[in-house]
Amino acid sequence: MQNQCIILGYPRLNHERNYVHAWMPYALFVIAKAIESSYPEIDVVIFDGHVQSLDEWDQLLRERCNNILFVGLSIMTGGGQIKYALDMAERMRDIMGEKTKLVFGGPHVNVLPEDTLRHPLVDVVLFGPGQYSVPAFIEALKNDAGFENVPGLLMKNGKKIIKGQSNPLKKNLFNGYPWHIVDIEKNIRKEATLTDRTFGYISSFGCPYGCRFCYEGIARGFVSLDATTILDDVEMLVNEHNVSGIKFYDADFFIQMERVQAFCEGLLTRKLDVKWAASIHPKDVARMDNKRPGLLDLIAKTGCSRLLMGIESGSNRVLKEIVDKKCTVEMIAHAVQRIAGVGIRGSYTFIIGFPGESAAEKQETIAMIERLRRIQPEPEIRAHLYMPYPGTPLFDEAVRRGFVKRNSLELWSDCDYYKNQTPWTSQDDVQLIDKLTSQQNLIHRGARYEN
């Protein structure tokens, strides 16, 4: 007899051209570990739409339909993920009928929970960290009572809505991943700037910088794994799965410099021959120079071959007044030179079409990109169109300038920062961002993951 189970689904994303998003749905694995800690008798099944098909989704539902406690889907704004989620939800209803609750969570739900709950396919939304809300929701389901005590819950109850408690980000309950339910081999990919056997990894959630256009800064919280846990995982991946590259998908890997130093020293002590890449903020480089001289050299020595930095704009006014980047063009230039000086390839991203950005300021961004292309090692350059994300501080400014707010999941499903989304940008800007992203980078993006 099968155990009772919970299915957590991560619909696929399509929001970068020629680029397959192949990192695992780490947030779901954090939730899975929390469920296993509280309810070891319940099976947790993760469905990853990047490596599994919709036919496999149907098969999974049919195989477990008699013992599913609930089905959860995680969605973010844009990238087509909402469209895929709704397709998965419709298939679930066709197979399961109304007897099993369908729960939505994830970044989009965190900022638009009421809008999400209005969709006829959605029974429940859980907003905020799922590792706190889901175990409490399971307990309420088992007792058929106490839903008002579930953190971050909104649930349909006839014509009424049950509302749970607040669900802020906390530092506990993030202590690693349940690797026994992960198909690691399916998540090893060819990464053009690292190795043929690269594994995506997330060691922290959140970002303290709070750029006004970005989702990551909304909660203004930050939780992370310690260096020892990361090193143990890397050692396991290298020794047991022949992984030779680690790509950290943290919003900013370098927030805690002591952790970074311990990680780098651990790579050397354990003799782990692995290349790695991560995201960094310009201020992180300045903090290293001021507080831990030599750390950037150590980072390069341990096999870091690529650092991703969101530069956003070449205009100091845009960086300060629109983005609130907490750095200047001069600080960015220093960080770029320091990264190149230790032999690490930079990967720099820009955004065209911020609300209130002038034509002259757009030209400042173009000029900065041209300067960066002369640096060695030659950096990757990517440009995107500004996309107003709900819940971010800049969103209301975009609405004031004419962006029409969507009020349904279907309308949000068409958001894509490679398409023209705002009345102050045009198809000419779409062509501009294509031009600003160099041909070399298009080749890298196309080759990054091979099936």
How would you sum up this structure in a few lines?
The protein has 451 residues and is α/β, with parallel strands linked by helices. The chain has helices at residues 26-38, 54-64, 81-96, 107-111, 113-117, 130-143, 227-241, 257-269, 282-291, 295-301, 316-323, 329-341, 359-372, 393-400, 409-412, 427-436, 439-447; strands at residues 5-10, 43-48, 68-74, 101-105, 124-126, 153-157, 160-163, 188-189, 198-201, 204-206, 222-224, 245-248, 275-279, 304-312, 345-352, 380-385. It has two domains: 5-163, Response regulator (Rossmann fold, 3-Layer(aba) Sandwich); 183-386 and 425-447, TIM Barrel, CATH 3.20.20.
What is the radius of gyration computed over CA atoms, rounded to a whole number of angstroms? Answer: 22 Å
CATH 2nd-level architecture of the largest domain: Alpha-Beta Barrel
Across the major sheet, the strand order is 2-1-3-4-5-6-7
Q: According to CATH, what is the class of the largest domain?
A: Alpha Beta
- CATH topology group of the largest domain: TIM Barrel
Helix content: 25-40%
Number of strands: 16
Helix/strand class = alpha/beta
| Spans of at least 5 consecutive residues with low confidence | 439-451
How many domain modules?
A: 2
Q: Superfamily at the CATH H level of the largest domain? A: Aldolase class I
Tell me the distance between the termini: 36 Å
Task: Count the DSSP helices.
Answer: 17
